[in-house]
Write a structure and sequence with these properties.
The protein is of the alpha/beta class. It has ten helices and 21 strands. The longest helix has 18 residues. The radius of gyration is 25 Å and the shape is globular. Bound molecules: thymidine-5'-diphosphate and magnesium ion (MG). The site of thymidine-5'-diphosphate has 15 residues, from helix 2 and helix 3.
Length: about 425
């Protein structure tokens, strides 16, 4: 059988061009992917089970002290994990996918679940080092340092009753004898993911597949992985910052509007229930405004910063990190027209701290306030919070879940809550 490595269309004979996606030289020879490891041409690789307890070096493994983190994960999944569910945990390299996974399986293992961890990224010894650092015992976890998916398939087939949960870290490190291309190529990823998914469904074992995403934000192995799995989770954040957000991109077994919020600390990921923890303690600074945004269904406190300086460019600079640049243009136009403040010779920099991208329109008002504060050099009391969408007429518009945001702001101790409920006239809130 032949298959297009780009769009997965199947053909009975080879051709140079794929009729479906019009790509050239993407058709490769492949076999049916379902449990084909039985037809092994090459000699089987030897599978070695590794238990962290048996590894030498450091024997300081203690029982886990971490009880948080997992709740955020469960909530994100809609409260439960379904047997046979295949979850893709995607995120850029170094964001904390393996750390989150280790904490998750540690909790599962404490409940007596037995876990198979396929480690292609790091050696079991490296994992052990990390487990010690973040104080995870990882009792019922079998580590297998094997990346040949055909060998893994055989291993799971004969040991399936030993496991309740499988982790693949990462799908990009696996390879199949029956697929073309290098590890991490589209054909390899789709073939390997197919086999893992079939195993998971066939034996009713839930599986977590870790996948790196490319700089442009695609899950490597374009789209194909997303279609194969039941649930796609995206782990996001700025590696330099500590905030991490776990988002649901797709979920066959639950809602997609939940988010999990974590903080990366030296001792692993910590669950964040109070978003004040994420902010630096600052008092009354120019251009610094607090805002309550909604992520999924949850209110989240963020800090918006604006810096406005005299421009030495013919076209003044407008830079925005974490906030939509087009909305920034819109807000500047409203400032110019409705507030009669000229920004034509001012460079404007806007930043949402913590390295998160927010698309909630409620940020408009906070961004506007931060810009005006920076231009006028007038600090904003740190007990104030601003949220609201700005219309082209300069009006403050009601935002989604406004009452929930107000409640959260009060809970967080803000005294001065400015939103459309207080006024819809931006002149009045200045
Ligand atoms: P990791 O889970 O290895 O990322 P991924 O699997 O997504 O590639 O996390 C890597 C980063 O996390 C690493 O740069 C260091 C940081 N880190 C901490 O800050 N604290 C910790 O306790 C751990 C385990 C990692
Ligand atoms: Mg990793």
């Amino acid at each position: 059988m032949f298959i297009c490595s780009k769009c997965q269309k199947e053909y009975t004979k080879w051709s140079g061009k794929c009729e479906n996606c019009q790509s050239w030289n993407t058709i490769i020879e492949s076999e049916s992917t379902l449990f084909k490891g039985t037809k092994n041409k090459k000699k089987d690789s030897k599978i070695v089970e590794i238990y962290l307890n048996n590894l030498e070096k450091n024997t300081l493994l203690t029982t886990s002290e971490i009880k948080t983190g997992i709740l955020e994960f469960d909530n994100t999944l809609g409260g439960r994990l379904v047997p046979g569910q295949v979850i893709l945990l995607a995120g850029s390299p170094g964001i904390g996918k393996s750390t989150l996974t280790l904490q998750l399986i540690n909790s599962l293992s404490e409940q007596g679940k037995k876990i198979l961890y396929l480690c292609g990224e790091e050696s079991p010894l490296q994992i052990k080092d990390r487990a010690i650092r973040i104080k995870l015992a990882l009792k019922n976890v079998t580590f297998v340092a094997e990346t040949n998916v055909n060998a893994i398939e055989k291993y799971i087939a004969s040991n399936n009753s030993k496991f309740n949960f499988i982790v693949v870290d990462s799908i990009q490190t696996l390879y199949s004898e029956n697929a073309a291309g290098a590890r991490g190529s589209v054909s390899q990823i789709s073939e390997c993911a197919n086999i893992i998914t079939s195993l998971s469904k066939g034996y009713n074992i839930s599986t977590l597949i870790i996948g790196h995403i490319t700089k442009s934000g695609d899950i490597a192995g374009p789209m194909i992985l997303e279609h194969m799995v039941d649930t796609v989770l995206l782990f996001e954040g700025d590696k330099r910052g500590e905030l991490r957000i776990l988002r649901v991109e797709k979920n066959r077994f639950g809602p997609t509007d939940e988010v999990g919020i974590f903080k990366m600390e030296l001792t692993g990921l910590k669950e964040v229930t109070d978003s004040r923890e994420l902010l630096e303690k600052q008092v009354n600074l120019n251009g610094v405004v607090y805002c309550i945004v909604i992520e999924g269904n949850r209110p989240l406190l963020v800090e918006v910063q604006a810096l406005c300086v005299k421009s030495y460019f013919t076209n003044p600079r407008r830079t925005s990190v974490g906030f939509d640049l087009n909305r920034l243009f819109l807000i500047l136009a409203v400032i110019e027209k409705k507030l009669k403040i000229s920004t034509g010779e001012t460079d404007v920099y806007v930043n949402i701290t913590g390295g998160i991208k927010i698309s909630d329109p409620a940020l408009d008002l906070a961004v506007l306030k931060a810009i005006v504060s920076s231009i006028k050099n007038s600090p904003i009391p740190s007990d104030s919070v601003y949220f609201g969408e700005i219309g082209l007429g300069g009006e403050i518009r009601k935002v989604y879940l406004e009452e929930k945001r107000i409640k959260e702001a009060k809970k967080l101790g803000f005294k001065n809550i400015i939103s459309s409920k207080k006024t819809n006239d931006i002149q009045k809130m200045l």
